[in-house]
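Input for the complex:
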Amino acid sequence: AQSVTQLGSHVSVSEGALVLLRCNYSSSVPPYLFWYVQYPNQGLQLLLKYTSAATLVKGINGFEAEFKKSETSFHLTKPSAHMSDAAEYFCAVSAGYEGSQGNLIFGKGTKLSVKP
Amino acid sequence: DSGVTQTPKHLITATGQRVTLRCSPRSGDLSVYWYQQSLDQGLQFLIHYYNGEERAKGNILERFSAQQFPDLHSELNLSSLELGDSALYFCASSARTSGGPSTDTQYFGPGTRLTVL
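Predicted:
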């Protein structure tokens, strides 16, 4: 079975500080991993995805994530937080079980707050 | 704007009723996925259609059904509604063409917020 665990349902940082959102995965097949962001009252927007081409993945809005197989992790980082980064972030894995068609399996989400 | 549209944006109804949620995928995308987002369950995959055919089911209740039409729009039908069905329902589309895990980006619509009173 595949799953994604996001450590910390709420993370608060100061503006300009490092953002680190944690994601660990469990998968019996090589995983394809995604980070999505959800702003209040909006749908999900892709930040970045790991497709096995490179372990360090750069996304939109200055975010990046590193795939570490030995740690089964795909943590999301941003060097300097902006107020506009306040949102909920979801880590997801593309389903690889028999009969699946690439639907996403999501973590519970991490709500990021940015203090001025 | 993801290019995926969903209507209506909000829906308020009573227990026992039936509602239909509509989704239009991005131009050219053949796959439509439906997800439910609730406070207790988080984001859960419901069902996937590809080019008019059902391809996979997730945690979808028997009271729920879906279909994808020849013009590729999709509808999610929810019947005998219960209080616990109150949630945000998203559809997502992708160019997905084959089975198994995928690197395809899924583009999400703005969602339909269903409130069952």
